[in-house]
UniProtKB/TrEMBL annotation:
InterPro entries: Homeodomain-like_sf, HTH-type_TetR-like_transc_reg, HTH_TetR. Keywords: DNA-binding. It comes from the Bacteria. One of its GO terms (molecular function) is DNA-binding transcription factor activity. It comes from Brotocaccenecus cirricatena. The keyword NADP does not apply. Residues 5-65 form the HTH tetR-type domain. Pfam families: TetR_N. This is TetR/AcrR family transcriptional regulator. Residues 28-47 bind DNA.
Amino acid sequence: MKRERNAKQAFIEGTVRVVARDGLDKTTTKAIATEAGLSEAYIYRCFESKEALLCAAFHMEDVAFAYFLKQNLVGMHIQNAPWKDRAFQLWSASWRFILGRKDDCLFYLRYYYSANCRTYAYEEHLQCFQELFAAVEQTFKPEANVNMLLHQVFDTMLSFAARVLGGEMPDDDATTQWAFEQIYSFVVPNVREELLIPPGSTPA
């Protein structure tokens, strides 16, 4: 059982590296097995299909990012800092998390925007983040469409990451700040007004 778990993880990690290196269309079970250092035939003892393996790799990335965000959301409850500063700290940490794992980010971008993701993995992807969506819902005005707003944040983050990893934009503080300002511009109109009151000030 332990050997099978180890093999599954090796195949999943191999899948991430192969997709990141070669692209989704050129990813084969043979390439994945070679990358994992295991027999190609053994893939089908661990997974029902190549698509099931890709879904498992995608789910691993979702779980890792959801856990990271859950751990870092606590910073949004610091009362003695302006809300925008707290939001930037969360953004900056999240940005460094995804760009610091280049293969994982490239794999994610390629699979997330594929037709296969929409067909086989998207529902599980949404479920993975439902707890986080519920945790931040009270941050926004009652009339805000929180699901749509958070998906917009997510897609904007991925769009900027793709531009950085593609060499179109530098990975520096200016890009980090610029990306944040783009996201903040459409998030802040939906934030409850009382959260935006500067610490120590009295509401009008």
